[in-house]
Amino acid sequence: MISSSINCSWDVGGSYDHIHHHHHHQPSKLYTLNTNYAKSRSFLGFNKKSKHYPFTFSALPTVNSHTHNPNLGFKLQGSQKSPPLPTNRKKKKYGGMLPSILRSLDTDINDIEITLHNCCQNLNPKEQTVILKEQRRWQKVVRVFEYFKSQAEYVPNVIHYNIVLRALGRAQRWDELRLCWIDMAKNGVLPTNNTYGMLIDVYGKSGLVKEAVLWIKHMRIRGIFPDEVTMNTVVRVLKEAGEFDRADRFYKDWRVGRVEGSDLELDSMIDYGDKNGSSPISLKHFLSTELFRIGGRNPVPEKRSSADSENYARKPKLTSTYNTLIDLYGKAGRLKDAAKVFDEMLKSGVAVDTITFNTMIYTCGSHGHLSEAESLLSKMEEKGISPDTKTYNIFLSLYADAGNIDAALWCYRRIREVGLYPDTVTHRALICILCERNMIEEVVSVIKGMENSGLRVNEHSVPVVMKMYINKGLLDEANDFYEHCQFDMGFSSKTRAAIIDAYAEKAFWAEAESVFYGKPDSTEKKDVVEYNVMIKAYGKAKLYDRAFSLFREMRNFGTWPDECTYNSLIQMFSGGDLVNQSRELLTEMQESGFRPQCATFSSVIGCYARLGQLSDAVDVFHEMKKSGVKPNEIVYGSLINGFAETSDVLEALQYYRMMKESDIPANQIVLTSLIKAYSKVGCMEEAKQLYERMKNMEGGPDIIASNSMISLYADLGLVSEAKLIFDDLREKGQADGVSFATMMYLYKNMGMFDEVIDVAEEMKQSGLLIDCTSYNKVMSCYVMNGQLSECGKLLQEMVRRKIFPESGTFKVLFTLLKKGNIPMEAVQQLESAYREGKNYARQAVVTLVYSVLCFHGPAIESCEQLMKADVALDRFVYNVIISTYRSSGDIDMAMNIYMKLRDKGLEPDLVTFINLVGCYGKAGMFQGIKGIHGQLKHGQIEPNESLYNAVIDAYQNCKKKDLAELVSQEMRLAFEPQQNSDSEFVGRSDENSDSEYEYQSGIEDI
Fold first, then answer.
1. What is the rounded CA–CA span in Å between residue 161 and residue 860?
2. In whole angstroms, what separates CA 96 from the centre of its chain?
3. Is 663 exposed, middle or buried (0-12, 13-18, 19+ CB in 10 A)?
4. SS3 938
5. Does the structure show a pLDDT above 80 at 84?
6. Residue 552, helix vs strand vs coil
7. pLDDT class for 292, splitting at 50, 70, 90?
8. Which residues pair with 352 in a beta bridge?
9. pLDDT tens sequence across 156-204
10. Cα separation of 207 and 188, whole Å?
11. Residues 319 and 352 sit within 8 Å (Cβ to Cβ)
12. CA distance 423 to 606
């Protein structure tokens, strides 16, 4: 993910320029906070006055702060000989013609030489120095210097060369710097300590640590010993490069007059951009080497400075040196050494300043000693040194890191209360703190306060705020904030990428796309990182076609894919089981000169293994080894698991042996796959041995291994062994849906139906019904045990939770209907409609289930929804609706639905007649029963046992038991097998003639 977090580390060390600006305000005692979190919101009010309760910083509520540790060696009593540095520095004002000349040079950019010719004919060297130093662009510095050198009376001097060299170094114009250095040597101008210190500074700040320290050797060859300022610069450069030990040794060598550069060899150093120290010699290295060679032509005799004797002991005298040393030891984690330097500074009478205390405060606080940091603030005020904005920024960050949000917010407000102003770092840190805690109202308040003060939200804070809104689902607010900030400022590629990534993490691809493409008239070229995160957004949303299309288009707009692009796409397609695209991209990536990561190969192998294409997985495995990428446990695990799924134990064991030969320890996943393989082929003893081995591993067997063992025992019918593992899982709270389902399967196969229901009940109570499969397992148990109502309740719960029934669910429901008191023809009709995929077949099944279980409310509600359908309903749907209303006792509504069926031109079928007879029986409508019975008797309706039973039930509902008995006899006759003997048939006819006569007479009476 693109990092959009605020870098809140504090660079409190000094710089080469040693220019420190201080705010003027009265030192103030600090005030308490109400630690009630609910009141922390009031701290951000900008137009309110707050109540304060006097007390010192040490009383602030802190989290994870340690008590004073005497072993740290802090002695804060100090010496009264160490005065604070003056805080009233003002920018120097120039007299004479200098202000006019400087204004002319600022306005006449293209006519610098003419301006100089008209105004600078009689300038002395000091005035020339001022003009050079006041130029802000390196091009102007060079042109002014060239003009001065062209004057006949000009005498080259080292101060002017230092200014030019510094301007070129800051602009990283290394070739121009080389030419200036050569020109300096040609003119016989010898470098001084200031020259070397400045060169070390500019090279170090550009990340060229090797080149920076090379200047130390250079100056020692010339016989110049580093003064304190140069030494301080070297220590600072090494400190910023993370070379804490080298910086410490250089300082200690300098103190005893021994700086030979033996510890500063190029081969043992690294540049920021080359962490392995193995980069080839670059142009920058060559330039430095040439500079080094040129500078060695005119060595200076050792007698030049008698003070540079080897035995001369030195002691720092500058405040900036002590500040750098304290910061060095603090960042190196050497708190005792930092405390020792601070104590030495106080005792030596060296003036302490705000930077000194800020450095010490951050050093203590960042290592968990907040109480020490607070006591340092009190000492700071005792010495008359006022905290500046950075002081409060440090405390704000420290309290936030410690989880004390109240104290952090109080620090922010305190900045204004003491007459200071929050700076960019303040607002970035505060916004970051609030956004991480999703304190939306407070973030809005801070931003409004910034805008009221004429400040803009820093660009680096925009992705942080956007991420907060996006994570909370406030997309409109996120878009409004983005549009507002985009109007005020232009976003860099890195910022846009961070915003797109925030959307991508939540799969909001459309919003990410809007940021990616930006304004329609935008022609700005997009960086590859923007394409990468946009591809990620499509991948998260499973829009693989869009991702691939964007990948193919990016070259047309001048942006070429990098290694990250290919790795992301391959892993994305593999995760979506698009293995052909993944394989093609893997080949293309290698042909483009990129080396795929192990994770990329692993994703393709895993995809092949999941899809059962194990031969292809093995091919990629060999290709991976051939390209020099070492397989890890994930790769071997994928192959072992793939062969385990296909019950190929021998192949799985082969890769397990290869894994052990590669000295890769088998983790739980690999052992679980082996157990799965053994369980599939019934190798109980081998599986038991691996399972016992996993018990001795940290964390024990995982749930998949345990379930595999339960499944193995279930297949073998070993109830007690399976129950032992299952009970252990339940006690640990690890049993999942698969565990319960496997135990139900075991008990069912063993005919232990009571145990099946017990496990099903426990599964339901454990909250493990999370998907359709788990519901199906429990519902089937209830149906099997005849607990149809419990099954119906679970169906209702599924619908309420929007877990839509699948094929397994309907299989259970049809079984339930067959066990219900409804005609088999109605069930068969619904099954046929479901298999054919007819409209509303699924809803009709659910409706009929509700009706059979007498869940009349949900059943009627479902019927009403069906009647509102936009398309014409099939006859089977009308049959279900009629049956539902009949079951609920609403005969009028049932008859109305029947009339609608006829109005739609649909003829009643057998199921319709069965439902109608039921309605007639409940309503006492004898004519209706008679009509359907007559059609049945005279062959107009094909004889059907269910319809006969419906007619019998209808007569019984009408209290006509004699007629019901006559219909029963008629049904027996209709379905009695035909006999071969005619006489037997005639005899049976004579035998039944009287009763048939009585039945017919009864019908006529009705």
1. 95
2. 62
3. exposed
4. coil
5. no
6. helix
7. low
8. 84
9. 999 999 999 999 999 999 999 999 999 999 999 999 999 999 999 999 9
10. 30
11. yes
12. 51
